[in-house]
Fold each of these.
Amino acid sequence: MDSNQQVSRPLFGHKKFWAHRFGPAPFLPMSRKEMEALGWDSCDIILVTGDAYIDHPSFGMALVGRLLEAQGFRVGIICQPDWNSAADFKKLGKPNLYFGVTAGNMDSMVNRYTSDRKSRSDDAYTPNGEPNKRPDHAVTVYAQRCREAFPGSNIVIGSIEASLRRIAHYDYWSDKVRRSVLPDSKADILIFGNAERALVELTHRLAKGEPIKEIRDLRGTAFMVPIGWLPSDDWEVMDSSEVDTPGPLVKHADPYAMDAGGSRIEDSGSSKGEQPLIFSAKSSILDPQSLRAARRAQRARTVVRLPAYERVKDDQVLYAHASRTFHLESNPGNARALVQAHGERDVWLNPPPIPLTTEELDGVYELPYARRPHPSYGEAKIPAWEMIRFSVNIMRGCFGGCTFCSITEHEGRIIQSRSEESVLREIEEMRDKTPGFTGIVSDLGGPTANMYHLKCKDEKIEASCRRLSCVYPDICENLGTDHSKLISLYRKARTLKGVKKVLIGSGLRYDLAVRSPEYIKELVTHHVGGYLKIAPEHTEEGPLSKMMKPGMGAYDRFKQLFDRFSREAGKEQYLIPYFIAAHPGTTDEDMLNLALWLKKNNFRLDQVQTFLPTPMALATTMYHSERNPLKKVSRSSEHVGTVRNGRQRKLHKAFLRYHDPANWPMLREALKEMGRADLIGNGKKQLIPAWQPAGTGEAGRGQPAKTVKSPTAGPPRRAAAGRPARPGAPSRPPAGRGPVARKPR
């Protein structure tokens, strides 16, 4: 098994399964009646999801289902089943090949609970936003019910919930480290990240009769094996189960180092497991391709052993070490396999999947989607669908590496972009097929607005890079930042017949945008509908360094260009900055300074976001372990302050909404404790007034309080719901409720 092999079979290069003769279905069937209308006696694959079925490529199960249909398989869907029994899991019968289980486009815990661990009152992926239509830890529950319904069936789990829980992980809602989702769900195999390659290959091999327990060589998959299992005798184990000994995981090779005998040492090796490769100076200089090939071959037959679940659950330093090791093995070009013991068995993770080519990505997004919800929902409104129905996804992945974000762990850092022609065809199809289209395209984007076709300038450098971010602490000199292809796409999109305006709704990476003033001019002149979303996240270096976000200098440069080009276009337009409260590494003083910056710049945020620790994110590791996994982890390594106390989390959130009278009593008390009572008063340079409007603060919670109104200052203006008081702006929705992620789950 050469798990680092870079050559993959084309996604649409398989011979179609015999059932392709049935042709594409108007909608993938959700009932026996629909199956019979299609002439099916059974399904080859049954997909189980916690979301409503919307046949659109922004929704994971539709994308995966249509892809498998294009391979010739009969695919049925069970949406939001009643998990209290196995009855709903039997309604389409037993699948011929497997159940494909997912929680949906979101992690079920993020979907159901806020950052304060309170139940959400709605679910954007459910008809009419109705809550409680999926269980906690939905992947585990659904997989167990599938096994109960048909004990002999193969169970394949995937989606972002499975991806982020593929190894032992900290679970914020239970405040403990949980096992990998594999042993809990009893699934046969887990597919993580972008699932297309592994899923198509797995399905064809199962259709040919290969047992699922013997399929162990697919990139992007994880499975349970006996302790000590190796694919073959020529594999080596690098033991990284202790701190301070990660070997080449943290020490980069020095290609110019020479040993005493005149040979070049290509890798420093490790005190445990992997040995250094030594080549003669003559062979390494004359035949560099052979040298690189030998290194790749060695890495492809090396597995890194992480600390066992039983150890990381009780040892925060080991947890941080495991997290750092895991993230350093995330580049498909050089990642090694990983293994982690859970009791008497190992969870084995193959390296991440090879990204799709532009042609393959085009093929995935141009499958015959109905582009609307399943007819069984009638006139019900599905909020997630309403949000993206007039938007088009143009790329996937993100090389920003923000520590609080899950995109990197799921989609990876390598940008996968569609062709210009494919995007334009989808806009035309949306224009012609999507009910209610008025000529306004709400977004051309993805995880970010402006990483379309951006990549490393050298494929060899990209394949060997182990940086956690291409843009922090500075933009890498090897990263291409040319926005010309995106500018071309914008110009052609807005000239299509029937298109009146193309807006950009995805968050903009402004530190990249300032490298291309022409792009900013194009964007500001034609594609901003009054407000543009950007995400500084904070103003202070302490939290920014733990987020891996740029300083405010890049924001200031971008704002200057934004304002200049808005004036030149004769438009009144404003930036919508997003900020996070209570992120690891943030102090009360940091939040105070941010609040003062907001007031100085006349921002009055409506909704704000409090840090939500999602499974496997680096910021979550900081929150749980109070160590910094961005640096080498040891027993004496950097301590990271975390905001865990409920009152302090509320205080940090209150600083972001300094203008809300309900927060003034808490802020007054905090400012006095911080020795900053000088910021209480009615002057322009003071943060909050000394007076309290009637019915607010403690009085607003039913407690008596005297109200003294200032004779010189009235209550602050409040932004209308969903609309900021100019020139302020609302912040993002609660964590997990941003734009729908448009990628396979």
Note: Confidence is low (pLDDT under 50) at residues 1-6, 245-284, 699-745.
Amino acid sequence: MAGDLLVINAEGPETRVALIEKGQLSELYIERRRERGIVGNIYKGRVKRVLPGMQAAFVDIGVEKAAFLYVGDVRGSPEDWKALFSDSDESESKPKKRQSSNAKIEDLVKEGQEILLQVAKGPIGTKGARCTSYVSLPGRNLVFMPTVDHVGISRRISSEKERKRLRTIVDSMRPEGAGFIVRTVADGVSEKELQSDMEFLIKLWNSILKKNGTAKAPSPLYNDLDLLLRSVRDLFTSEVDKLIVDSKSEYERLMKFVSAFMPDFGGKIELYDEREPIFDGYGIESEIDRALERKVNMRSGGSLVIDQGEALTAIDVNTGKFVGKRSLEETITKTNLEACKEVADQLRLRNIGGMIIVDFIDMDREANREKVMRAFEEALKLDKAKANVTKISELGLVEMTRKRTRESLGRMLTESCPYCEGKGYIKSKTTVCYELLRQLRREGGTHREDYIVVSVHPEIADILITIESQYIEELEKRLQKRIIIEAKKHFHLEKFEIHGRTHAGHNPDDHEPEETKP
């Protein structure tokens, strides 16, 4: 079976990286040059406001929206910050542990205070970035945590023998009090490679501390790699058979980066030079369009309906055309089992985070509910984003959270419909007509002019002068005034205006006099 594939479209004003696993688009990353993300960047910020009621603070880091700093993400006391801001080359000062649950934000930071922060979550919607003082610097094989005394091993490294080997190596080489996380790609790498990675990250941290000593807040101290190089660092694993990129200049930049940090991977990189756009050639463009649809069809004939709201995302599982062969319970269970993988795949591809409710089809048997739950938990294991899942209820509902660090694919590639303003619906033409007639009845008598002019969308005007013409005539008798219907092409379907006029002439802006009732 063919291995994974990394396809990079970098020839335009944005960089798009697609990870294809077993022939299927699994993850998609997009970075626009004018809108480069800030997750992973490190800043010297200044505290703007301390909010004891929220146990948080707003910090100016020099970007459009103030960053949010929660009490649990603050390292130590003001005295500890002085130690952190030392411009010493020594990286062996002992870091403090994370704040206990009874720590108070007002005791840890003060308005006007300068602090070093890293962006943990980028701005999402109307919210600013979320920051932390617990810095982490990712390398190829290791993640350096200069402020946390801890060694962790990726849970994807399953061999207990290998986990023990890696832990022993890292533990023996790390500076006292500093921490490291061993990444999945470190499985099987030599001690020399780990040491090289560790030394590079420690030097990087020391350079950040030096820069912090002279920088004025707010200012950036370190920018994470751009998407192209970040993807190579994080996604270009031994499981990837080939990386293919469509830009010659970016291909050359990739080769330099790989030769310096990943020399064994250089032979896997190719330059795409076909006439057909690279994402079209690999069938990725159509998959992106599918990932923006509300409805996702499954192979069996069942489907998912995905509704992403501000507070949570609801995913509804439907049997659709799938009728099964034996019993209804068996049909439902098979549909739910297929949906387990599809839901996990869609969450990963669309990068949906936050609170999620999955509404599986109701199953009568407890054994079937447990079977579906096990399948769902297994499907989620492929996802790099951390997820917390509750047990399936008798109604088939699963509540879960998925870690969110950036905008979802839908939010990044789409914007609210200017017509319905993001509601997803508008009032029916009949509803608008009746609202208008009630308003006309309500305020018609307040106009002293001889004529009442009703300005509406052309489709509403058509209903008023045809279907509702009799009621219009009754209103004219009741109000003792003539009612003129004016069609306005530029009006929103739900918009209407009622005003008086002393004569029956047409407005020169109106271009549809045949829809005007004198």
Note: DSSP finds 14 helices and 24 strands in the chain.
Amino acid sequence: MDFLQRTPFFRLLLPLILGIIVYQYVDFQQWGLYAMFFLSIILLVLPFVIRIPKRQFQFRWLFGFGIFLFLFVLIYFLSGEREKENVFQRLNSKGIYRVELSAAPIEKAKSYLCKVDVIQCFDSTGWVTTRGKAILYLQKDSAASKLLFGDRLMLEAKFSPPERALNPDGFDYAAYLKRQGVGAVCYVPSGTWRMTDRDKAFSIQHQADICRNYLLNIYREFHIEGDEFAVLAALTLGYTDALQPDLRASYSATGAMHILSVSGMHVGVVYVVMAFLLSFLNKNQRQKVIKTIFISLFLWGYAFLSGLSPAVVRATLMFSFVAIATCFERKSQIYNTIFMSAFFMLLYNPNFLFDVGFQLSYSAVLSIIFFQPIIGKLYIANNKYSKAVWDLFSVSLAAQLGTMPFTLYYFQQFPNYFLLTNFVAIPLSTIVIYLAMALLMTSFVPYLSAGVAFLLKWSLWLLNFLIVWVQNLPYSLSHISLDIRQTIVVFLAIFCFSAYFFYKKFSALVVGLSAVLLACVFNLQTNYQTMTSKRMIVFAGQKNTHVNFIDRNRNYVFTTDSVEMERIAKAFWQNQKLEKPHYIHQNEWFSDGVSGFAGSRILILSNDFLRKQTFSEPLKLDYLIIGRGMKPKIEQVLECLHPRKIIVDKTISDWYRQSIKRACQSRNIAFYSVAEEGAYVLNFTD
């Protein structure tokens, strides 16, 4: 029987995915949607109108196409409705608001991040109902640290739209928040808000937050602190707020980040453990149903303890369907139930498709189910110890096969020692989970709990030590990046090679090899563009000036903060196959204040250079870049300099940027604002 026939939800999932993607790029008119909707209804009804059996068989495809078109129109409509619900009604309008916390606050370096629902706004007529989701950054103080899910605040604020991606290959924070339903952000200083009350209605999410905070306090009572507490909280309860950037980077660089995110792997561990403990309930179908019910209850109980985060709920739903499929002993049903869980989740919220966790979770699970049995058969273990090692190896390799394209696309790096990491991290993390459970259960027993806490702290220390040790091994990380085109064709190649392995169809092999060839062509195209280009890029930095000069694959950077420059430009450099940056300073290219690049005269005004210079006549320039928050009088600047174009970076204040713009308009000088239009990219080869 064909795979598509055995997995009907895979066929139903395809029009949903297509409709969600099309909605992002194609704006159909309303009459077009109605036309497609009525066409789908006609196609669904037509097979029942045809009475001749031979004709029914000939036109059986009409019903399937009708379902495809109906689901396509449905998800397109739902995507639009979801976007309308997420519109924030009072952007850039300062006022008094009432908001309610829709999630537990997240502690940052200087603030608490709070996701809120805006309930009311005070205007000339009094309190009026409004709507919208926003991110508040509350200044750190004792009051903010005590907030919980469901708390209601009254505050004075001005909500602004989230910042879009301003730099090449930069993270689009606005699109990320939009797909989470968030339409505004705001910083709220201490003293401009107060807690008014708390939502009295029963909330599972609120109870889950209280429960998780109680368990975290138990860890703190036994003096588990620092990196050990951060890893323990993330590993067992999904609390990642305490993770420091360097520790997070170590786990990411070694391929162990998945153990710090309570999602698919952790729920899968709970599923496997519960299935093993309840394996005696396999004698008849009734016992199997009881076993499935108990497994599902434990899965959702663990999700509750970990705070009911979206990733955990998604993984729990997926494994609940897997448990149901396993109950009926239908292997093909496992695939169908996984696709069914994705189908209903996308119907609930189409934006889940763009969530990185959603993509990684489903690709990892499907890859493990498909590839692990194949890899497992390559070696027959002769004892239980070697079998355990081989099973761990095969699962790790299978998961990497499915998630590798996403990893290279989103993170531009591949952990070369991911197998070694998993052999270290998974056993130790399992021990940590068991010791943590023991500590929570024996916390009221004085000496026993102290002994368990001692073992737990040393296990956590050893886990962190070994992760850092693996990170510091030679060639532990490969910096490889895929663009969206390469990611698609790599997945196509994996799919086609898998189809060839099972069905031995020559066409699948040809398509798979063609996909690999196409990915190589895309890579060569990028290399060619890089080797034939000369570019100047003025990046958008928060407080510093960054100018990038690219001469083929050579990478020269003028910056007032190399750390920020690395953070905002690293992805672009890797995607463009550029060399490591060579940082230039005033005394190199700009010894006389002006640099020549690709035949253009360029001045970067980021200090009091003009005060130290005298000019017998105005200095002619092609490009004047004003940055680092400079505030010279633009009229005096233009008396000394005659630029063809002025580029103002993001560090310049709004009022000064506008004064420069007016001065340029009066003198017919071209003007460009990085803050308004994004990074300035000039390709000298055009």
Note: The chain has 23 helices and 20 strands.
